[in-house]
């Protein structure tokens, strides 16, 4: 039968008899860069080499992996991209055109040794003025060039370069295309990465940032009202204006995601409007991906960490690990409700996580420290983003190893 077990630190969980207790200790290695927080170097058309030799060219027979990231505007995609690219390390070069401030041109494409991040705003059908004529928002799928998006993602996965359009966020125009060369990891991020089934078939791993309406409102009030002086009425009107198209065209994509980072208000104090409850919803059965677990894989756990080992401000901290159904799929959910005062103490939590895909003990904590000034570094958003970034790295390593083995086997048989 099921056995209820009470452990120290107010930990209660249920062990399934068929499961083995397997607490995987995570790993410690300093991440080598802070990704986009470093000074950018103009890359021109990738002809510029940085301090050490750039290694962006694909190896013979190497197939790029495609990562898709979907989210509404202002939901933390840029911060997440910093965590992903810093995980891979190496030289950071970008934005591709150098930006106007560096004597280049406006661009949304960011590159490093191994990764290329493509903003899907570049596939808008119309410029800002054109959307005023059409009467449609950028969230509407009728305003996107999905055929071109598919052709470009397919070509890049085949190791071919493409001439990608540029949507200029500064003045709202569609600028001259830029040349994109394939790299080992290509990330497409934006409003509609999973809408087109042809593009979905090309994606190796998909993520969705799901920010609840209450948290969105609190974030916008903090940013637009407290920092920019906007009225509450104008903020509410802006949110309500976007909501129909968000509900129709953006939110339905989360059912396709392999990893959903869900950000909700805390359940620890109903009056608290700033503390976050963050859930990493991890789909089971995805090739080359093993969900992170807390203490015991496959069990049901609620854990209040010891205050002597993890100092937390009010209303405290609670973690959970549960098994759920999400849009008809079996998922493992890792949850952190609350924030912590000292990132270094997060190693206490990390030591009780399994399948973190870290290389050394404490690497998750070290990665959080390397981006300590980024939003979410003291709560579950930073933790879940870091775990997702490590999962992408492990996915890349596994697929690279499989491709190398296949090439060696083919060469031996020839």
Structural account:
This protein is α+β, with helices and mostly antiparallel strands and 414 residues long. Helices cover 29% and strands 23% of the residues. The strands form 3 sheets. A 13-stranded mixed sheet has the order 1-2-14-15-16-12-11-10-3-9-6-5-4. The chain has a two-stranded antiparallel sheet with strand order 7-8. A hairpin with a 2-residue loop joins strand 15 and strand 16. Helix 1 crosses helix 9, helix 5 packs antiparallel against helix 6 and helix 8 packs across helix 9.
Outline the biggest β-sheet.
Answer: 13 strands, mixed
**Whole-number radius of gyration?**
22 Å
Number of E-state strands: 17
- Structural category is alpha+beta
**Number of helix segments?**
9
Roughly what percent helix? 25-40%
Q: What's the rounded overall pLDDT mean?
A: 82
The general outline is globular
**Residue windows where pLDDT falls under 50 for at least 5 positions:** 1-55
Q: How far apart lie the N and C ends? A: 55 Å
How much strand content do the residues show?
15-25%
Topology order in helix (H) and strand (E) letters:
EEEHEEEHHEEEHEHHEEEEEEHEHH
Strand order of the largest sheet: 1-2-14-15-16-12-11-10-3-9-6-5-4
């Amino acid at each position: 039968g099921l056995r209820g077990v009470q452990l120290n630190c107010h930990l209660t969980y249920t062990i399934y008899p068929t499961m083995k207790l397997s607490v995987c200790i995570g790993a410690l290695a300093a991440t080598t860069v802070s990704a986009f927080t470093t000074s950018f170097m103009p890359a021109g058309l990738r002809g510029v080499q940085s301090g050490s030799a750039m290694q962006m060219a694909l190896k013979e027979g190497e197939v790029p992996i495609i990562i898709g990231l979907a989210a509404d505007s202002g939901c933390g995609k840029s911060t997440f991209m910093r965590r992903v690219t810093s995980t891979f390390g190496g030289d950071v070069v970008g934005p591709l055109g150098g930006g106007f401030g560096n004597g280049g041109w406006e661009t949304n494409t960011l590159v490093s040794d191994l990764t290329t991040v493509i903003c899907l705003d570049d596939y808008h059908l119309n410029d800002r003025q054109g959307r005023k004529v059409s009467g449609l928002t950028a969230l509407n799928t009728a305003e996107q060039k999905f055929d071109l998006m598919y052709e470009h993602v397919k070509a890049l996965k085949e190791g071919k370069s493409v001439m990608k359009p540029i949507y200029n966020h500064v003045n709202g125009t569609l600028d001259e295309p830029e040349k994109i060369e394939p790299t080992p990891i290509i990330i497409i991020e934006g409003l509609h990465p999973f809408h087109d089934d042809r593009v979905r078939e090309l994606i190796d791993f998909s993520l969705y940032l799901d920010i609840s309406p209450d948290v969105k409102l609190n974030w916008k009030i903090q940013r637009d009202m407290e920092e920019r002086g906007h009225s509450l009425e104008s903020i509410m009107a802006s949110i309500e204006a976007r909501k129909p198209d968000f509900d129709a065209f953006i939110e339905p994509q989360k059912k396709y995601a392999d990893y959903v980072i869900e950000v909700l208000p805390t359940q620890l104090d109903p009056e608290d409007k700033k503390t976050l409850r963050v859930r990493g919803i991890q789909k089971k059965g995805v090739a080359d991906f093993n969900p992170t677990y807390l203490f015991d894989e496959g069990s049901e756990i609620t854990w209040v960490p010891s205050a002597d080992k993890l100092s937390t401000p009010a209303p405290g901290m609670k973690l959970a690990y549960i098994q759920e159904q999400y849009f008809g799929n079996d998922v493992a959910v890792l949850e952190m409700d609350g924030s912590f005062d000292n990132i270094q103490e997060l190693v206490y939590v990390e030591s009780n996580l399994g399948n973190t895909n870290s290389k050394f003990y404490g690497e998750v904590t070290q990665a959080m420290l390397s981006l300590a000034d980024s939003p979410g570094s003291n709560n579950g958003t930073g933790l879940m983003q870091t775990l997702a970034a490590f999962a992408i790295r492990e996915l890349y390593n596994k697929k690279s190893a499989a491709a190398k083995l296949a090439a060696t086997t083919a060469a031996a048989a020839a």
